[in-house]
Specification:
single chain; mainly alpha; 17 helices; 84% helix
Length: 424
């Protein structure tokens, strides 16, 4: 009881807990919506929604141009001019948004044919991505100001507005997949408007365009775009390949199976969120051999637990699908094992990445991620051609496993820990 009270009074523990709960709620939305939406949306409807969200992720990276990261850095390095950095970051976001919007308007027919999404929705992708960027800036400011409860309130509000609008538009108004997409877009629009009001009230809107600040933000953000794009491409490639090589209907089945298997990833991400600060503190104290062995043992124990979790999710997935999901989606069960294994590997890779972050060797992560994205596209093409939609899930598992191995090898090089003799 004393330890529990001590933890509650610890700012780091309390703040981390808020971020952790918020992250779980936000990432759990696709799964939480399954019992209702699968009864009102067809597999093809789900395929269109999955394609829209995956494509948005690509253009979000470009419009965002890592301005949130730049704001985080300059907030602490040059606190007196934070409002200048925030305003000029938004100017950059607006500029990239207009460029992307123009690009999508000009090439919407080509893009529509490529990703199998109706032309009308192509420009909407840029608009939704811009709203999401504004929301991300607000969340970044709350993190910098160490206001986790406001962070959580803003993010959870966006999540529930997203859920509420989606259910109203799909179930009550009968707008099918378009209603789900509109729910997502309007939720981000409402919270972006609220975010703009918050920025104005906090005095972060200066109306002073400064090329020096813009140059600094670009120097920080532009090099990060290839890494971020590569990460998003992994989630984009499988949907687009299935759309073109199999069908949008199959993409919908894949998306539902993916949501169930991704439960492993939600749990894994939550652990990594808590693990990072704990690991950094231990490494900063120059641990002796015994403490290093303890770190390695904890990592291996986590590996075993996350693999068991993946197998457990696979075993109970038939029950989840039978009792929570409409019969039109029963075929999605074939994807769960491969996606659960994928996210077990991804979660283990995330744990190993923390050692690399601590060693400040993040540029290696960018190289690996870029290589992984190319590998993922090649394996997707080969396996989908051979095994249909299931090949996409298998490609994801192979890709994330390879990423884990690469991260493990790199982590063993940058951190002197007893990876192979931790029992001695």
């Amino acid at each position: 009881m004393f330890l529990f009270k001590k933890l509650l009074n610890n700012d780091l523990f309390r703040n981390t807990s808020v971020y952790l709960v918020t992250n779980i709620i936000n990432k759990a939305i696709p799964f939480l919506l399954l019992p209702l939406l699968t009864r009102y949306l067809s597999p093809s409807d789900y395929g269109y929604v999955a394609t829209f969200i995956a494509t948005l992720g690509i253009f979000y990276v470009i419009i965002h141009v890592s301005t949130s990261g730049a704001i985080s850095v300059f907030y602490f390095r040059d606190n007196q001019n934070t409002n200048q950095y925030i305003f000029n970051s938004i100017v950059l976001n607006i500029t990239f948004f207009l460029i992307i919007l123009f690009f999508l308007l000009v090439f919407k027919k080509n893009i529509s044919n490529l990703i199998s999404l109706p032309e009308f929705w192509i420009p909407i992708i840029a608009i939704a991505a811009f709203f999401k960027v504004i929301c991300q800036i607000i969340l970044t400011i709350y993190r910098c100001e160490k206001q986790p409860f406001k962070f959580g309130l803003f993010e959870i509000t966006r999540s529930f507005v997203n859920i509420g609008l989606s259910l109203i538009l799909v179930i009550i108004l009968g707008l099918a997949w378009q209603g789900r997409v509109e729910g997502f877009v309007f939720a981000n629009f409402i919270l972006a408007v609220l975010g703009a009001v918050i920025l104005i009230k906090k005095g972060y809107i200066t109306y002073n365009i400064n090329t020096m600040y813009i140059r600094k933000i670009l120097m920080f953000g532009l090099p990060l775009i290839p890494h971020a794009l590569a990460g998003q491409a992994i989630n984009f490639t499988d949907r687009v390949f299935i759309n073109n090589m199999v069908s949008v209907h199959e993409t919908g089945l894949y998306s539902v199976g993916y949501s169930i298997g991704q439960i492993v990833g939600i749990l894994g991400t939550s652990f990594t969120f808590a693990w990072g600060p704990y690991l950094f503190e231990l490494l900063s104290l120059s641990p002796d051999h015994f403490q290093k062995m303890k770190i390695v043992r904890n990592v291996y124990i986590y590996f075993i637990l996350i693999i068991i979790t993946a197998l457990f999710i696979t075993l109970i997935s038939p029950i989840i699908i039978k009792y929570l999901i409409d019969k039109n989606f029963y075929e999605s069960s074939k994807y769960v094992f491969w996606i659960a294994c994928s996210y077990a590997a991804f979660s283990m890779a995330s744990v190993m990445s923390q050692f690399i972050y601590y060693a400040k060797k993040t540029y290696y992560l960018s190289i690996i991620t870029f290589f992984i994205a190319i590998l993922n596209a090649l394996i997707n093409y080969i396996l989908i051609k051979t095994n249909g939609g299931l090949g996409a899930a298998q490609a994801t598992a192979i890709t994330f496993t390879f990423q884990f191995i690469m991260y493990w090898i790199l982590a063993s090089k940058v951190q002197n820990l007893p990876w192979l003799n931790f029992f001695k």
